[in-house]
Amino acid sequence: MKRPIYLDYAATTPIDPRVKQEMCRYMDITGIFGNPSSYSHSFGQEANWAVEDARNKVAQLINANPQEIIWTSGATESNNLAIKGATDYYANRGKHIVTSSIEHKAVLDSCTFLASRGFKVTYVTPGKDGIIKPDMVEKVLRNDTILVSLMHVNNEIGTITDIDTIGRITRERNIFFHVDAAQSANRLAIDTRSIQADYISISGHKIYGPKGIGALYIRRRPQARLSPQIHGGGHEGGIRSGTLPTHQIVGMGEAAMIVIKERESEALHVKKLAERLLNNLKKCEAVFINGDRRYCVPGILSVSFDCVKSDSLMMSMNDIALSSGSACRSSNLEISHVLRSLGLSEDMAHSTLRFSIGRFSTADDIDYVSKKMYPALMELRALSPRWLGSHRNAATKLYP
Prior knowledge:
Elements: E1 5-6, H1 17-23, H2 42-61, E2 69-72, H3 75-89, E3 96-100, H4 105-115, E4 120-124, H5 134-140, E5 145-151, H6 163-172, E6 176-180, E7 199-203, E8 214-218, H7 246-281, E9 287-290, E10 300-305, H8 310-316, E11 320-321, H9 337-341, H10 346-349, E12 352-356, H11 363-381, H12 385-390
Parallel strand pairs: 1-11, 3-4, 3-5, 5-6, 6-7
Antiparallel strand pairs: 2-8, 7-8, 9-10, 10-12
Helix pairs in contact: 1-7, 2-7, 3-4, 5-6, 7-11
């Protein structure tokens, strides 16, 4: 039986077969399975070499020094470690944090936790375009601001934050800058030699690597510091304790190298498919694209379908893997905090789907989705009194 079409790459990416093949060499008795911290024998020494080789590869992904890369369990832990660790270490310099209202929950919940511990948090809210602009950030900085934490690419609407300019602003003010690059490391070039970020979070499973592994970049010059949040063993220079999962780390390293080699060609592939999807959606009435489509990554599209509930639309196209927004909130009925920040009504937010296109998507996938979309929309709208009363003759509304 044909598997469902997968268009939820922003939630997770499948492991690239080349990554899987490499990981298998580090899992059983015939391979390199030792504890990387067991330096007294060859099993541990070989595993340690593999870990450091992967660290070098991930460093290359963002043009960093390998010594600036710390292994974590994923971007959620990296975000927590950066935000809580930095504010804990530099608390004597101030207790004000700046972030935005459209961040990932790993950032927002970390800030909520810190607010309960006496820190003050300012949330920058974007306009309808969904972009956090540098001047918005600069206006809310204070003398006691110690950290700014922003995502590079929004996980629901795909908009890009100008981290270059914001980094220059924070550096001039001697404020530390954390970038959540979970959605951008696979899609955009990141160069720590030009971007003035002090901490950068990266996720393995968002770059076609395994789940359960991530990395945190911590700048060495000028040096950024943080307080450890996990203790016990002194691993990773005492910053993050825990036995290192060699096979997952090797997988993330291999995934990083593939991104370095293929990012540009993959970006063109995804852009063509996104344009194909947008052109096909123009055939439908009362369809709205959320967020700016100029300053964005093309592979993440947030689309609202007036007078149709997104869960009903997904059920009617159950052979297509889509989402109504972030995977972290797909199990609850609350509307997306990102869409709320953009000013969408509750009805429109509940009528929104996220299409995210990736490495293994095809033109046939896009055409199949488009073919299924129109009749599904018409069938569901035929049950909506509001649609029948107000939109029967509506002109197509598609905002690029």
